[in-house]
Design brief:
This protein is 30% helix and 27% strand. By secondary structure, the protein is α+β, with helices and mostly antiparallel strands. Strands 7, 8, 9, 10, 11, 12, 13, 14 and 15 form a nine-stranded mixed sheet that branches. The structure holds 4'-deoxy-4'-aminopyridoxal-5'-phosphate (PMP). It is an enzyme of class 2 (transferase).
């Protein structure tokens, strides 16, 4: 495997960052993950637009121009022969003597790009089975709309899920409403077949897959309502599912041990997943 690190392509196992990279010491950085399906980078424009926003919110510079980053992403994908899988990119504020405040002398932000192959058949199999979810109290900062590499609450939430034999954890506000998963956005299907997902205000990450699924739903004639929903409403919903670049549309079959409907993936999630690729492959690539 080949990775890109600050201007060069290196063997994955030799690809290293400096010990004083601010991402390493302070989680002072942002990232993106794009899905690659049948050679297409899905929603590349959406992901790079969100990267631009994350960088601006943190007063960080682009490490290279946007066109150059697109080239590097395609090159890493090409060198790793990824036809189906994902590409990861990370931008940190750069290398500087450790200090919480920004470096006083300008440093170039640091860029890492990796890609890996994933088996679409294995993903389809997972989707046929669906996933189980637990809930955890929301304990993250208020700016989770910025896609930072500071993911410790998400790490602990996901591990709590694994410890409980589940695959994802949903963060829940004190008022009992679902925010989002550790690395996914959360959705339910109501009795009348409409979709519900939380508004993408500052409380959740504005998922790129979430936005595309809204378009897919529109194409399928499904109604989408952006509002908060409670854990109880999700448990008694007709269906529940999550979205993300890596899981696309993944049915949720139980929440905190309570089966959703009959405990099997539903038809709405399945049709969204099937329709997703046809639409996403037509999305602007840059
Ligand atoms: N919420 C969180 C916390 C995430 O980490 C992710 C994955 N990046 C998502 C939602 C889904 O976003 P996207 O559809 O852009 O992958």
């Amino acid at each position: 495997r080949i990775a890109y690190v600050n201007g060069r392509y290196a063997n994955h196992s030799d690809a290293m960052v400096h010990v004083e990279d601010r991402g390493y010491q302070l989680a002072d950085g942002v990232y993106e993950v794009c899905e690659i399906s049948r050679g297409f980078i899905i929603d590349m424009k959406g992901h790079l637009d969100r990267l631009d926003r994350s960088l601006r919110e943190l007063r960080m510079d682009w490490p290279v121009e946007r066109g150059a980053l697109e080239f590097i992403m395609r090159e890493v994908i090409r060198r790793n022969h990824v036809h189906n899988g994902m590409v990861y990119l990370q931008v940190t504020r750069g290398v500087a003597p450790r200090d919480h405040a920004f470096p006083t002398t300008p440093v170039r932000s640091a860029l890492v790009v990796t890609a890996k192959r994933m088996d679409p058949k294995a993903a389809a199999k997972k989707a046929e089975k669906g996933m189980t979810v637990i809930t955890v109290p929301e304990n993250r900062w208020e700016r989770v709309d910025i896609k930072t590499i500071g993911l410790l609450p998400n790490v602990l939430a996901r591990q709590a899920a694994v410890d409980a034999g589940a695959q994802e954890a949903w963060f829940v506000d004190p008022d009992g409403t679902v925010k989002e998963g550790a690395s996914t956005n959360a959705w339910i299907v109501t009795a009348d077949g409409g979709l519900v997902t939380r508004p993408a205000d500052f409380g959740i990450l504005r998922g790129i897959t979430r936005a595309t699924v809204m378009k897919v739903a529109d194409d399928l004639g499904l109604k989408v309502e952006e509002r908060a929903f409670s854990v109880e409403e999700a448990q008694s919903a007709r269906e529940a599912f999550v979205t993300s670049a890596t899981s696309v549309v993944m049915p949720v079959v139980s929440i905190d041990g309570k089966p959703v409907a009959n405990g099997h993936p539903g038809t709405v999630a399945r049709s969204l997943r099937e329709a997703f690729f046809a639409i996403a492959e037509k999305s602007p690539s840059c």
